[in-house]
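idk why but the lab printer keeps eating my pages so im just putting this in chat instead. protein + uracil:
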Amino acid sequence: MTADPTYRGFALDAETALALLQWQAELGADEPCLDAPIDRYDMPDRAAPPAPAAAVQAPLALPEDPAQDHAALAEAMAAGARTLAELAAAQEAFDGIDLKKGARNFCFADGNPGARVMIIGEAPGEEEDRQGRPFVGRAGQLLDLMFGAIGLSRQAVDAERALYITNVLPWRPPGNRRPEATEMAMMLPFLRRHVELIQPDLLVLMGNTPCMAALNRQGILKLRGQWTEAFGLPTLPMAHPAYLLRTPLAKREAWADLLSIAARLEP
Ligand code: URA
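predcted complex ->
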């Protein structure tokens, strides 16, 4: 915004400027802009991304179909990551989906990597995109309360009480739209490797998107509460906390699911 005290003919006192900003936020604007709009999907790629970890730098032949090329690259980069730090570096460097261009921050994971419970959500929202951490907005606050009620926390140092949290996608889809099947498929090798490196005792799939990615199934209201297997581990689908915020009555079933997790963790 310029120092000009008017904006398109309106007097721009502090109150008007604040009202204008709030209105723009309600319309979905989530960052300040220049005078002319920028289409980030039509920009040359950003400055060179951080080099992937040494183990994943092997040059790969370029097949003709760029999507296949990227899929093969994702497999190779994920498989080559020997540690979480290498996986994060490889995933952040991966250029195979456009979401990366529109996101502010790469959002890898949060919590204690030694945790027995690993939660997989959908994708970063606005607040997660701002902070570069999963589940830190309203839904994330509810998620913390829910798991706190059975004695689990992402801050816990003790692995018995700890949570580890990630998402199917590490970049925010524009306007919080649902991830597309091609985006999920492209990032799946990273998620699989993520689970292998964490080696939790059990997985929790939050909502339809991780059920689609990990189980190739959807219909969370039917899937929730039924233990199944994903990536070779006991897995419980649960309703997403964003859904619970909109549908408080569903919290009763979520509580039953939390108790089922607590029971499963008992020695
Ligand atoms: N919803 C998700 O599924 N993941 C987040 O990180 C935030 C909201």
